[in-house]
Amino acid sequence: MKSKNAELLQQLTEVTTGLEFPWSDSSDPINPFLWEVATQGEFTIENLLRSETPNFDFYAEGGKFMRIINLDDYIEDIWQKTETHKTVIELLKNNTLFLEAAEIRLLHDPHLPDTFNIMLGLTKSGEWIGISPQIQGECREYNPTGEYTVGSSLLPVYQPQTAENIKLLTQLETLLKDLDFYEPNFYEGFTDKGYVVKLGKTRELMLNNLLDAIGFARTFPFRQFTPVSEYEDDFDEDYIQAYQALDNFLESKFSNLYMYLLGISCCYCIYVIGETEDGDFAGVTSMAAWS
Prior knowledge:
Number of helices: 8
Shape: elongated
Helix content: 25-40%
Radius of gyration: 20 Å
CATH architecture: 3-Layer(aba) Sandwich
Number of domains: 1
CATH topology: Nuia
Oligomer: single chain
Structural class: alpha+beta
Strand order of the largest sheet: 1-12-11-10-9
CATH superfamily: Nuclease A inhibitor-like
Distance between the termini: 39 Å
């Protein structure tokens, strides 16, 4: 670890000691987070999901948020066998140079590492494509402070840039809109209708938009942890000062601060991450539970 980052991590540890995530029905601590580009690669939501185990001991057994799985096994074991399902797979294979499947882990129960599956690939014209079942999360309209919100995504809407991919997107959206899906490891077996399909100029942009569209990985502007109340006696002075110190540290040390909300039902991992002056990424992480 770089000496600067070791010092930064120590400072984050000091400023988060004793603090809990303030907008939650649970009492989970706020922990420091550090991402060194030289050893961990580019910071993206996908790399975060593929590298991170939720930062709480009782989730460790289930492992990382996301892992690549065997595409043929997924198609054989999970993808359904109707003519429409077969047509979708044929369209994808005929229009992509590369296609794979991934398994994404939920967080609602640490003892049941429930998962759902997505497909992603590179089209022959160079744009990335992804497909996910339209999972209906219980709190999918919540923001990181646990408030119900309806609004536009921060992420730009991407339009395919080639005639071939415009046609492919139109065909897939028509086929997938009401198509049955079955996720055997989601709630011990879950069936519903509808898939989401997204394209992007890069793998990163496509996957970010795909996971945002189903509500699993969403990006928000940074919001200060310091509580705001109309009543002076709601919080004691030491409590306010501790969270103010955290907010001041984050805003003074990092640029491009964002809040990332990962999860789809009841329990969510929260990350507040910004860029350091040396091009690495750091911040804090915690967990929120809303009922």
